[in-house]
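Summary: Need help interpreting a holo structure output

Steps to reproduce:
1. Submit the protein chain below together with the SMILES for zinc ion.
2. Request a joint structure prediction with the ligand placed.
3. Inspect the structure token block that comes back.

Expected: a single structure record containing both the chain and the bound molecule.
Actual: see attached output.

Input attached:
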Amino acid sequence: MTSTADPEEVPYGEVVGFLRDLIRIDTSNPVKPERPAAEYVAEKLAEAGLEPRIFESEPGRASVVARIEGSDPSADALLLHGHLDVVPADPADWTFDPFAAEVRDGMVWGRGAVDMKDMDAMMLAVTRRMLREGRKPRRDVVLAFLADEEAGGNHGAKFLAKEHPDLFDGVSEAVSEVGGYSYEVSPELRFYLIETAQKGLAWMRLQARGQAGHGSMINDDNAVTALAEAVARIGRHDWPVTLTPTVTTFLTEVTEALGVDFDPKDPASARAAVAKIGPLARFIGATLQHTANPTKLEAGYKVNVIPERAFAEIDGRFLPGLEQEYFAELDKLLGPDVTREFSHYDIALEAPFEVPLVEKMMASLQAEDPAARIVPYCLSAGTDNKTFGVMDMGRGVIRGYGFVPLKLDPSLDFAAMFHGVDERVPLDALEFGSKVLDRFLTVA
Ligand SMILES: [Zn+2]
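--- attached output ---
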């Protein structure tokens, strides 16, 4: 399969060309605005007979939204969203130019190949094919191609949610990135990880205030000392293992399939189990517990001057459903002399796993890969699903899932592809993903 494949001959032949074109439109965030990519996407949607709309939070920061009418008017709408921006890439580190979209070794290479212009391209190729063939998805599908996900979404998802919530009328569930890819245990067993939960995010700025003075004097109210003690307590804290429903299900399924001991009632067995599940551990290791990592320190301007104030920054991530406990513990660690404020905060999410939507993901995957076994997992980072996860469009808050179906060769270190050097995606995975996504949208 090549980018020049005739879409009439190869069912989803357009997907590779779309991905390559999108990679070549540099949308590095920050610096390169999304507008040219948004115009490209809008043109492809309009060609298929849709009426895409481009929304800008400020000049250049563009998102595209289009709605496809479903065959079942009584059904809730489904939001299918991808982001158009990418993180920057330094060409000096790469085997090929990260914005050239080279095809080598059966893969498309370039920034955004897995995060997440691959999904953007599949969304385009699949919906265009469905419309070309006169087929409809079951539900109304809101297609959203968003700006600014990599910097928190203020110019993309958050802007649309605030200024144009009507775009999401009737939506009850959302599907987007960082889930759906395979982990091959054997040719007879392939796990597909569906993201059903996300840790919350708390970037905090700590401040200690004390008595300023000359460095030669006795000072028992030194802000630097107080801050350093609090930072050390936080950094050294051993957060206990706490199993959320998603992580419990993940570990139960995976350990059973791999023959590893795990007792859901014994959190200590979870750490031992994770140590025995191989590369899968990388996806879920940080989701057994809260984390709070000191990342920045700032105080003083001269060696013989005790400053009045000292600052530190903490990257905190809390488990869904356990936010209050997290901050209560954190405040104990801070002690009375140090205050905290958020520089950035975002919610944790946990969506139900045993729902029709996930069953349909499963059925769509198994139709294309009989060895597929679906497991839920909790993402230790975040996606635009957090933004939609607080919107209630009359059907309860929008429940978000990560499902970008890709069947991958076990030799590819897929977790390293996200924001990584030599990011790349196999051509046959794009073809597979398009087939699964088509089946999924038809029944979802
Ligand atoms: Zn992403």
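--- end attachment ---

Reviewer comment: The chain has a mean pLDDT of 94. Residues 427-443 form the longest helix (17 residues).
Status: needs-info
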